[in-house]
Amino acid sequence: MNNIEKLKEKALEWGAAEVGFSFAGDVLNDKYKDIPYAITIAVRLSDRIIDEIEDMPTYTYFHHYRTVNTLIDQITLRIGVQLQDWGYQYLAVPASQTVNDVEQKYAAIFPHKTGAVLSGMGWIGKSGLLITHSYGPRVRLGTVLTDMPLPIKEHKYTDGCGGCNLCTSACPAMAITGNHWEVGKNREHVVDAHACSQYMKKKFQHIGRGSVCGICIKVCPKGNKRH
Hints:
By secondary structure, the protein is of the alpha+beta class. The chain has helices at 3-14, 47-51, 59-85, 112-118, 166-170, 193-204, 215-219; strands spanning 18-23, 37-44, 90-93, 122-124, 130-132, 139-146. Helix 1 (3-14) runs antiparallel to helix 3 (59-85).
């Protein structure tokens, strides 16, 4: 078993449902060009907890969301530690963090969805979420950037949303435009992150700071699979 296979096996053992590899050098900020390979992990969310969501987030979902983020950060850190032991550099991108020193608001140092799409894990849906081929949007993502050469395959990007607009209709913040994601278009072409954030803050802060409603995840028919 080579190091790549060991890394994937360990990530799955630690709790990831899927692991993907990609070359992200073409879309990375210049300061990260020296670590151009991306390891993407997806941790599956609880179907039972998602299914309980109706017209607002539940306390259980709020806790679950944060707990899964913590697990992702632990997995990506462990991957990074292993990479460093092998003599490579790494940067574990936080599972859920926005930074103020990037051009786009409500953005991270590297978008997990970009790595996931490049790895062939799925597509960006009308909700602005990654829709995985296996679990729909019922996952949370993590990324490790590294200079370790990874096995890269080219993947044809396919948008599987079609004419479905369930997430658009269900969004209580009216933040989802109903447009298909397109390369080169700003995020606002698909979803208004500011409107979403402000609605959550106004309506659901009593559930917890940074609460997310999860309604677009719940209604997506691509997440109704049971594996």
